[in-house]
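Support request from a user on the community tier.

User writes: "When I paste my structure tokens into the form, the page sometimes reloads and wipes my input. The last time it worked, I copied everything first. Here is what I submitted, just in case something in the input itself triggers the reload:"
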């Protein structure tokens, strides 16, 4: 299983590397929202503001960071990958649990797309079946740990632009089958402060 970490700040990256050692992983440089321009993004059809709401540049940078990982997963050789934000309190010893979760979902639904394992809020779609300990998510907040299949990455990429909502909402609310979330988070987050909130 390929593992990807997302980070835009060297101080947070260093701490992340220390936590996940000796796990073999790939760091994908995140997109710093401070360097984004609304005019350029709207002109390039990367972002489209809704009439009643405008996403912060930090939120857009976070979205684009995850989108970059989806491109890696779609082009990679692994059938699926674990994606971690740099504030995820994840350790290498958690990998067997991740593999066990993937196997359980694979046995339940061979065409699964993604499994969210770290969220801030958990909203479920009523009436959708999932194994015990899992649910089908709907417009949930937080996306610090998830497993994404190659098929799921291709699906998200095909609908990723223009950006109109935060990446956690886009992923969990995506209208598809094969999406699941764990009732219990596999890991929490560390309190580094949010670029989504701080970068306007």
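"...and here is what came back when it finally went through:"
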């Amino acid at each position: 299983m390929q593992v990807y970490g997302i980070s835009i700040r060297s101080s947070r990256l260093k701490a992340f590397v220390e936590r996940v050692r000796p796990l073999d992983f790939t760091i994908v440089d995140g997109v710093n929202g401070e360097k984004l321009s609304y005019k350029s993004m709207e002109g390039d059809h990367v972002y489209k503001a809704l009439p009643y709401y405008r996403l912060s540049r930090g939120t857009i940078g976070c979205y684009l960071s995850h989108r970059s990982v989806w491109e890696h997963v779609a082009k990679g050789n692994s059938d699926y990958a674990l994606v971690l934000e740099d504030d995820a309190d994840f350790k290498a010893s958690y990998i067997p649990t991740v593999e066990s979760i993937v196997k359980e979902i694979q046995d339940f639904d061979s065409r699964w797309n993604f499994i969210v394992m770290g969220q801030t809020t958990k909203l479920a779609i009523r009436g959708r079946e999932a194994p015990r300990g899992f649910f089908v998510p709907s417009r949930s907040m937080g996306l610090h740990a998830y497993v994404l299949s190659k098929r799921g990455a291709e699906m998200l990429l095909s609908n990723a632009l223009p950006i109109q909502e935060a990446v956690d909402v886009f992923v969990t609310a995506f209208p598809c089958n094969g999406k699941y979330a764990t009732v219990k988070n596999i890991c929490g987050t560390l309190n580094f402060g949010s670029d989504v909130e701080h970068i306007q």
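Agent notes: The reload is a front-end session timeout and is unrelated to the input. The first strand starts at residue 2 and ends at 7. The domain at 2-198 is CATH 3.90.550.10 (Spore Coat Polysaccharide Biosynthesis Protein SpsA; Chain A). Escalated to web team.
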